[in-house]
Amino acid sequence: MLIFRQLIDPQSSTYTYLLGDTKTSEAVLIDPVFEQARRDAALVGELGLRLIGTLETHVHADHVTGAWLLKRQFGSKISLAKSSGAQGADRYLVHGDKVAFGGRHVQVRATPGHTDGCLTYVLDDESMAFTGDCLLIRGSGRTDFQQGDPRVMYRSVHTQIFTLPEACLLYPAHDYRGLTVTSVGEERRFNPRLGGEIGETDFAGYMSNLHLPHPKQIEVAVPANLRCGEPLTEAAALTAQDWAPLTYTFAGIWELAPQALEEVGAQVQIVDVREPDEFDGALGHIRGAKLVPLGQLAQRASELDRSRPIVTVCRAGGRSAQAVVILQKAGFDKVANLAGGMLRWRANGHPVEGGGE
Ligand SMILES: N[C@@H](CCC(=O)N[C@@H](CS)C(=O)NCC(=O)O)C(=O)O
Ligand SMILES: [Fe+2]
Q1: What is residue 236's predicted lDDT score, i.e. its pLDDT?
Q2: Ligand 1: which residues within 6 Å by Cβ?
Q3: 203, 248, 196: which is closest to 69 by C-alpha?
Q4: Mean pLDDT across the chain
Q5: 253 CA distance to ligand 1 middle (Å)
């Protein structure tokens, strides 16, 4: 039997797909996200599966792949298109290849247009296909960066995706409106850019007038994904910390969510690195937080308790990320940043001392 799960990274609206074969327990992940690698690893384990591979639909521009992190943990083999130009993969795929997991497999179809190395993975029985950023639900990937080309994309969709059975379910790499799945029949009829009688020139005209801002992470994501997600930070920094449910960001910072901080409570020291007027200002501060402005942190690190983990806090989570780096340099190893700072803490309804409503 096939195990299938669709997972989302809310930050980048990226879908990750888990495919497993119950007979052999072998599984693959399509498009894992760096920050979600621990979540994905936990799910694979809980479902009794063994991760044997990760597959990229393309070199992403908006998030960093979790492929390298997962390989480090599970020894999973990294696969992506030969034409992607990426280094560090175990297998470089070309059109017509098959990638097996247990008794099942996906077939590789080259669907360039968003990037040169875009692949669509079609499940062995053609009941589902993973289209990456080629065909999106009632949309398409953009064609205005990397090696984007609308005419190439149009041909990819029409020759490689619309030729699949009408009932074949299509799972994209992203959706920005909350849609999760579509089908070949639906997109042939209702895709406003590529469906019906729309021709290649119509599509090219549509795509050259989108005028979208570039993805926020593009400068970090593309070079990192060309290394299959291997970070440039030291491996030691990646050693898991177990005192709270932390996330390791590609920027090299351990973070925890407001809810997690509330749960660990008094076992940790909260260090607020804002300025005194902010600490006593409108956003208030977290009960028990110690005020040490960022500029004084290195000199005053000796005031902190070395036996308890530290959580750093600021307004939005930027300065406190730098505080994590400063404290690590000062020899503190259990230290993490409060993700989103006081803004997210308050937005999520956690209690504050002082401050206005
Ligand atoms: N606002 C997003 C933009 C993401 C983006 O541009 N995504 C690409 C895929 S890598 C795309 O094709 N988007 C289609 C669209 O936005 O219509 C970000 O900053 O990450
Ligand atoms: Fe993309």
Answers
A1: 56
A2: 12, 60-62, 133, 139, 141-142, 174, 176, 212, 215-217
A3: 248
A4: 95
A5: 24
